[in-house]
Specification:
Helices cover 52% and strands 8% of the residues. The chain contains 17 helices and 6 strands. A 3-stranded antiparallel sheet has the order 1-2-3, covered by helices on one side. A 3-stranded antiparallel sheet has the order 4-5-6, with no helix packed on it. The protein folds into 3 domains: 8-60; 70-150, DNA polymerase, domain 1, CATH 1.10.150; 177-372, hpI Integrase, Chain A (Orthogonal Bundle), CATH 1.10.443. The protein is mainly alpha-helical and 400 residues long. Helix 2 runs antiparallel to helix 3 (87-104) and helix 13 crosses helix 15 (362-372). The chain has helices at 44-60, 70-81, 87-104, 114-126, 131-150, 177-193, 202-212, 216-220, 262-273, 286-297, 305-308, 314-324, 333-345, 350-357, 362-372, 376-387, 390-399, and strands spanning 8-14, 21-28, 34-38, 227-228, 233-236, 256-259. The protein is elongated.
């Protein structure tokens, strides 16, 4: 007959002076969180009796639920989630909860209600947070509390029915063909002007972004092993933490393959020929790579750095290119938006674009489709021309 695993163990916790100890009960509460309870004495027989009694109470469900504060709940939730989410997302969750606790309080997680969520939303707005920022905060809180429901730590999600603030839909910023030409011309001169040991070859980086729709982090973490010159494709793949490469994961996790044109492939071939033998990265400047390797050796390189710090002053450099090209202020990410919009404009279907863009949901892709289809007025005018009887128009004109 198998013996039941003990739910409660005794722990002799030494006193601060090291001359004595106190018995503690160690157990997992109803949420699966490791807890400890002081017995306040050092009597072994008494402690064993108390442990046995508490063990029976646990098995019979007679123990009162212990308080689980929001801060502890989130800490436990993130520990359980592990590396299933990005480090940056983890930090955003932790920051959002810290902000909630600051405004509402570190309540018992079971006491949080819809009213608290609505109050938090209004406090954020009153303090000047934009509707988009408040929506993002609520989204993180809703996700965290839903994990508690999924893990049966909570009966319901108090944020489930908290309405997000209404936000004005922003128009997708894309670069026109003339703007792209100006940007590339300046980028080419910029690449020659600056020392490429520490700055990327901007003209190549921009043309590949326009051709593939790759994100900034995907481009900067692209290695030569991802480029298939023969098949004329570039692969978006995660990177392991090795001697030559640092760890990096794809947003939304899915690997994908993207086509290259003959011209872009040749540009990459020429760039590869100028790289040091065995150099792993396509767009990381050699001098910057050496700096990163030094930081890694000292333990001063984090996973978040693989997204944000691969190239120093990346955004200021791109903004300088835009300014010199006399292009209205934009973002590097607008190159990706331009590529996706161009795919739609040239007849590609929504599902195909979703796969190539690496979107996790159809709604994101659909925004770009609507941006391309945003010639509603012009299309309605053309339809009216075809549909209104010309004889009616003539009669109308004669009556004026």
């Amino acid at each position: 007959m198998m013996r039941q695993k003990k739910l409660v163990t005794l722990w002799e916790r030494p006193s601060s002076d090291g001359k004595g100890f106190t018995y503690y009960l160690l157990f997992n509460d109803e949420n699966g969180i490791r807890r400890q309870r002081s017995l306040g004495h050092a009597d072994k027989r008494k402690a064993e009796r108390q442990r046995d009694k508490f063990e029976r109470q646990l098995r019979m469900g007679m123990v009162e639920p212990s308080s689980l504060k929001i801060k502890d709940f989130v800490k436990d939730s993130l520990a359980r989630t592990g590396d299933q989410i990005r480090e940056s997302t983890r930090n955003e969750y932790a920051s959002g909860v810290k902000d909630f606790i600051k405004r509402i309080g570190n309540l018992d997680v079971r006491d949080v209600t819809l009213t608290h969520g609505e109050k938090y939303r209004q406090l954020c707005l009153d303090d000047g947070n934009s509707p988009a920022t408040v929506t993002k905060k609520l989204k993180h809180l809703k996700r965290l509390f839903q994990l508690g429901v999924n893990r049966r730590q909570l009966d319901e999600n108090p944020f489930k029915f908290v309405d997000t603030p209404k936000t004005r839909k922003k128009k997708i910023r894309i670069y026109s063909e003339a703007e792209c030409q100006s940007i590339l011309k300046v980028a080419q001169e910029y690449s020659v002007e600056w020392d490429l040991q520490y700055r990327p070859k901007w003209d190549l980086l921009i043309i590949v972004a326009l051709a593939t729709g790759m994100r900034r982090a995907e481009l900067l973490n692209c290695t030569w092993s991802d480029v298939d010159f023969e098949q004329q494709v570039i692969n978006v793949t995660p990177k392991e933490d090795t001697k030559a490469t640092w760890r990096w994961d794809i947003k939304d996790s899915d690997e994908r393959m993207l086509p290259l044109t003959n011209e872009v492939t040749q540009l990459l071939v020429d760039h590869h020929a100028k790289q040091p033998e065995g150099y792993p990265y396509v767009f990381v400047p050699v001098g910057r790579y050496d700096v990163i390797q030094t930081l890694r050796a000292k333990g001063q390189w984090t996973y978040s750095d693989s997204r944000l710090k691969v190239v120093n002053n990346f955004t200021p450099q791109f903004e300088k290119i835009l300014k010199t090209a006399k292009v209205k202020k934009g973002q590097f990410h607008d190159l990706r938006r331009t590529a996706i919009t161009n795919w739609f404009a040239n007849g590609m279907g929504e599902h195909d674009v979703m796969v190539l863009a690496g979107h996790s949901n159809f709604a994101t892709t659909h925004e770009f489709y609507l941006a391309v289809a945003d010639d509603l007025v012009d299309r309605a005018r053309r339809a009216s021309v075809k549909s209104i009887d010309q004889n009616l128009l003539q009669i109308c004109c004669r009556s004026i």
